[in-house]
Amino acid sequence: MKTLVIVIHSDMDNSVVNKRWVEELQQYPEKYTIHHLHAQYPDEKIDVKREQQLVEAHDKIIFQFPFYWFNCPPFFKKWLDEALTYGWAYGSTSGYRMQGKKVALGISAGIREEDYRPSGRYKYTMQQLTAPFEVTFDYVKADYKSFYTYYGVEHKPSSAEIDQSAKEYLQFIDAI
Q1: Cβ atoms within 10 A of the Cβ of 137, count?
Q2: Closest Cα partner for 175 from 97, 108, 104, 101?
Q3: 19 close to 48: Cβ distance less than 8 angstroms
Q4: Rg (CA), the chain
Q5: What is the pLDDT of residues 92-125, one digit of tens each?
Q6: Which residues contact 103 (CB under 8 A, 6 or more apart)?
Q7: Which of 3, 25, 39, 175 is within CB 3.0–4.6 Å of 60 for a Cys-Cys bond?
């Protein structure tokens, strides 16, 4: 079964890393369903049933987004709030529709990796900062598989570095 990659990026035209990752994913349409949340819902009015059906139709779900202000884009949070409904994602009569589905994050971060350490500039690791996602997906009984992060986007990475990250990102997804 295909992997659903939900891309949450408000400005894909000017993206560097996320755009390149999508280009790499598009080379394998038999493996990946790419779902651009902002393109699908430019008014941010989410069709909850459609989103739930997409999730149900896939065994692996990757949420791909830029990490800024040490968090996810607000539209991703809105998606979580609206799509993970009581009676579908959780609750005694829900059937836990995400149960057992492998879920992971694909994150592009502007800041360098060494700044995301207890001894670094921002004191917290990416693992610590993404813990709420792990808890959320554990709560709905999904099989959370962590994240892939490309660090240092704001430090003008070379095309070769970005190309390499795209290959590593797909390897990460395929290994889940």
Answers
A1: 24
A2: 104
A3: no
A4: 16
A5: 888 899 999 999 999 999 999 999 999 999 999 9
A6: 60, 61, 62, 63, 137, 142, 143, 144, 145
A7: 3
CA distances from 78 to 2, 37, 123 (A): 24, 11, 27
Sorted by sequence, the CB contacts under 8 Å of residue 79 that are 6+ apart come out as 6, 8, 37, 46, 51
Torsion angles phi and psi, residue 58, rounded to 5: -130, 150
What pLDDT, in 10s, does the model give residues 16-64? 999 999 999 999 999 999 999 999 999 999 999 999 999 999 999 999 9
Alpha-carbon span 120 to 64, nearest angstrom: 25
Beta strand extents in the chain (DSSP E only): 3-7, 32-36, 60-67, 102-109, 143-151
How far apart CA 16 and CA 36 sit, in angstroms, is 16
